[in-house]
From TrEMBL, chains A, B:
Pfam families: Rdx (PF10262). This is Selenoprotein W-related protein. Coiled coil: none annotated. The lineage of its organism: Bacteria, Pseudomonadati, Pseudomonadota, Gammaproteobacteria, Pseudomonadales. InterPro entries: Selenoprotein_Rdx-typ, Thioredoxin-like_sf. SUPFAM superfamilies: Thioredoxin-like. Keywords: Redox-active center.
């Protein structure tokens, strides 16, 4: 019984997230924290979240192959609420993220 | 310049780890903790570590596609030292893991 429910739930998690981080910069901890935030908030949407150790100051987040954050381009790290909005827009666009969810796309 | 160094380092991390966990059992936290332990200990060996939300009481760890732990088969979760030995045997077999590294393969 739980097998059947399980299989159905797997199928309903089609989205893939990738986080690339620089080991030399010691960004594993913040990357793993962001991973847990995303896997908690998008429990029914994300089917895979991969951490990629890298170098050279890399910090990037990709959703289904699309880069949604680059530290080098954006000039820093995302606020977790902003990161969740960017992921939400790709995996569950109609969903509200609650009281912290404001339209910041024009800022 | 850092690009070139970065690419070279990526090539030296050929191994892939996958952790499957049951969301209904709330095993994300222990899975993410184990992920961070493995990525810290095998910083130069693991190129990708993927967390897979699942259901039905699943907890499995795979290295390069080989299942090295199954909660259902082994009857529980691995000690972190044991898990590191199992990963080490696949990704860096000649390496010692220090004072906690004893031969427990016969126990």
């Amino acid at each position: 019984m739980s097998r059947i429910i399980g299989d159905n739930m797997e199928n309903s998690r089609p989205h893939k997230v990738d986080i690339h981080y620089c080991t030399g910069c010691r960004w594993l901890l913040r990357s793993a924290w962001m991973a847990q935030e995303l896997l908690t908030t998008f429990e029914d949407e994300i089917g895979e979240l991969t951490l990629h150790p890298g170098s050279g100051g890399i910090f990037e987040v990709h959703v289904n192959g699309e880069r949604i954050w680059s530290r080098k381009e954006m000039g820093g790290f995302p606020e977790i609420t902003r990161l969740k909005q960017l992921v939400r827009d790709r995996v569950s666009p109609d969903r509200s993220l609650g009281h912290s969810d404001r339209n910041t796309s024009n800022t």
